[in-house]
Amino acid sequence: MSDLLAARSLMAMSLGFHIIFAIVGMAMPLLMILAEWRWLKTGQAMYLTLAKRWAKGTAIFFAIGAVTGTVLSFQLGLLWPTFMEWAGPIIGPAFAIEGFAFFTEAIFLGIYLYGWRKISPRAHLAAGGVVALSGILSGVVVVMANGWMNTPRGFSMINGIPSNIDPLAALFNPSGLLQAPHMILAAFAATGFAVAGIHAFLLLRQPGNLFHKAALNIAFAVGALSAILQPVSGDFLAKRVAEFQPVKLAVFEAQVETQQGAPFRIGGVWNSEKEAFDSIIEIPYALSVMLHLDPNASVIGFREFAKENWPPIGVTRTAFQLMVFIGMIMLFLALWGGWLAFRTRNLFRSRRFLQTLVLATPLGFIATEAGWVATEVGRQPWVIVGHLKTAEAVTPMPGLTVSFTFFAGLYAFLAFIVIWLMWRHVSATPNQFAMNPVTENGREHDGT
Amino acid sequence: MMGLETTLALVLLIALTFYVLLGGADFGTGVWHLLARGSSRRDQLRLIGDAIGPIWEANHVWLILIVTIVFAAFPSVYAQISITLHIPLTLLVIGIVFRGAAFAFRHYDVKDDAIHDRWDQLFAVSSLISPLLLGIIIGAMTSGHFPVNPASFFQGYVGPWIQPFPLAMGLFTLVLFAYLAAAYLLLETKSHQLQEIFRKRAIVGALVAGLLEEAVLILGKSAAPQLWGELMHSLWGAFIQLGVGAFTIAAVWFLFARRYWWARTCAMLQVTLTLWAWGIAQFPYLVPPYLTVFNAAAPEITLRFITVALVVGATLLFPSLFYLFRIFKGGTLFRQNGQQG
Questions:
Q1: pLDDT attached to residue B336
Q2: CB count, 10 Å around CB of B294?
Q3: What percentage of chain A carries pLDDT values higher than 70?
Q4: Which residues share a beta bridge with A282?
């Protein structure tokens, strides 16, 4: 493995690993305070148990997210010192803001986890609210900084040196402004569906367990709402990519040649010798309509651009397709669940729905990773689009394969332990609520 | 009027002080975790877990803040350190990952069984790695003179930090952190038995830290002439050394007298003064001889933006931090009436 490839693989792996923990750490606090709020409102002990259980799970994910985030803050420099020196004065201040948001999150998570008996219930709930808000803020700022790599703003090049720097313009760059809500919704959709899937699994094993019903209601509500909003956010973002990174969008949509009345394409395998996609399905005019609301609008193909500036076609296109496909499945599940809740006021009667939710447990995470791959691999060969190529930014330090191998082992170890701990967490499910007398007077439907 | 670059360098020194006093002490508990023996072993481990549980995540963020300020305000320093000190920085974060993960696995698990001992061991051992490496990195930056066009891998990426001075600095940092941890733990328990254990440890820690400090200084004569010159040949250097010595002696005396609040206060002042002596002596160099606070600084507008972000951030941060510490450390923050010392 060349050092450049090792550096890219290590960066991708660190980010890909961190993202899972970051999005769970971002979304879980909302679930946990919703459960706590239900407890304060209804006085039912199971909501308190639920909030505490979710808080412990959150604590593990947050801790791993925090340490892997620390790895990233160093690794960006360790692997890409030239990029960081270039980017520091322009986008660096965004990370200082992120630092404070993260600080607030860590402080109030400490208060939330250890303060159950030390502060009033209202203050405790408020602390959880601060955790949720600061987590979202910190995610927004990080993703906006990433957006800057896609649409770099806030400077002008004078004699090859970035000058006239404007950190605010850099932070509020066109791509970042729409990438951020897309990522936040992804976090809530993925986490909501994953938690709902776990509780659906447990509910199938113990039908009638009120604890899991309550948990499923909250988690599914959050996941479904986000999954319904996500395609809207994705549509806005795709239009922006079409405007600012046409080559990336062309690869996303398999648009090889510039074309009027472009079709929306499904599937397909990139044939690099013919420079065309094999066995692709086309929906006539759909892409032109989706991007420009005009069936005859022209869509730029990636062959308009120098081949050296193409991202890896197969990976980018496949990742994008996977993300959209899963997004559609999650939208369908959200609507199905919404219909069940509306028609029967009961999510739990349909075993088929619960079984499908179980199968959908990992889907949101897969879609998030796929979306991340699409946006990052789709940015190649640039690290700062139009200004600095990835190959020019890598460290001169040799032997990066060693680092890559070590961190691969480290992440595999952490992933294994976290999955094992979550399994313990889930299998230690409280049983006392199965026979809870509240069942009889029907208060179980409070949450629907 | 102090320029913005100097102001931000000062902010870095303040943030580093907080990191050492708070995060450093969390790492320092690892030493006592590893050395916990005898009939009270379980109680010692519980004391450590309870003491750092609510605050270790927040204390860790000081380091993130330092990294982001260096990256944004002094980007060439961040890039240069990242290249030359690639190996110790990588080891530092590995220590951070294992320490944090082990603590989370141990304390946020729903069950309680034998595997928790493994996490305890991992926590203790990995807590030693990061302080050592942090000291080594600071030591290597103090010496500076990073090779510009290294002739070999060793010269470029190993030589700058495998030296007596940075290694002594690493050991000194570890002992200092352990000393702080022992001094803090004294106020976290009401058990006389535990207090006696940590009192002895704090005394030993203070004495060993004092010896290592002298060793670092002597090694610095050739390895960090800038530091040596400022501390040994200036009036303020003499004063500050006198101050460090006085606080060390006072801390040890209060420990002997079992006046723990005063002992902890003196230990904190001793460490703070040591850090500031280093920081001021090093000024204006970030990595001598080429990178200074002035020539490595980002453009004015960036510095201004960071300063505004820091001011706004600090007005939110400090009340939150105070709230956190008042909830969990309220009994130890201020000297209590009727309490010894």
A1: 67
A2: 12
A3: 96
A4: A265
Residue whose structure tokens are 């308190």? A48
- From chain A, the residues in CB contact with B96 under 8 A are 67, 70-71
- Contact between A257 and A301 under an 8 Å Cβ cutoff? The reply is yes
Question: Where do the structural domains in chain B lie, given as residue ranges?
Answer: 8-333
pLDDT at A139 > cutoff 70 = yes
Interface residue B57 vs chain A (CB under 8 A): yes
Does the pLDDT at position B127 exceed 60? yes
Q: Which of A73, A88, A397 sits opposite B298 (nearest CB)?
A: A88
User: What does the pLDDT read at residue A279?
Assistant: 83
- The answer for residues whose C-beta is within 8 angstroms of residue A38's C-beta and 6 or more apart is A44, A47, A214, A218, A446, A447
The percentage of chain B sitting over the pLDDT mark of 70, rounded to a whole number, equals: 98
Distance from CA of A190 to the nearest CA of B (A): 22
**C-alpha distances in angstroms, A313 versus A291, A326, A382, A386, B57?**
20, 20, 14, 18, 41
Query: Tokens 């609507």 map to which residue?
Result: A335
Q: What is the DSSP letter of B109?
A: -
Go through chain A and tell me how many residues it has: 448
Q: For A206-235, give one letter per residue: b (16+ CB within 10 A) or e.
A: eeebbbbbbbbbbbbbbbbbbbbbbeebbe
Chain A: nearest CA to B59, how far in angstroms?
9
Cβ-defined contact of B309 to A96 (cutoff 8 Å): yes
| Closest CA of chain A from B183, distance in Å | 22
- Neighboring chain A residues of B89 at a CB cutoff of 8 Å: 74, 77-78
Neighbour tally for B167: CB within 10 Å: 17
Compute φ and ψ for A305, nearest 5 degrees.
Answer: -105, 155
8 Å CB contact of A82 and B55: no
Helix (H, G, I), strand (E, B) or coil at A161: strand
Which residue in A108, A113, A140 sits closest to A126, CA to CA?
A: A108
Query: For chain B, first and last CA: distance in Å?
Result: 41
Q: Where are the domains of chain A?
A: 3-244+314-447
Task: For residues B22-40, give the mean pLDDT.
Answer: 92
CA B271 to chain centre: 9
Alpha-helical regions (H) of A164-283: 167-171, 174-205, 210-244, 246-252
Q: Which amino acid makes up residue A158?
A: I
Contacts of B100 in chain A (CB under 8 A): 63-64, 66-67
CA-to-CA dists, residue B84 to A415, B67, B136, B167, angstroms = 31, 16, 13, 16
Residues 6+ apart with CB under 8 A from B70: B12, B77, B78, B81
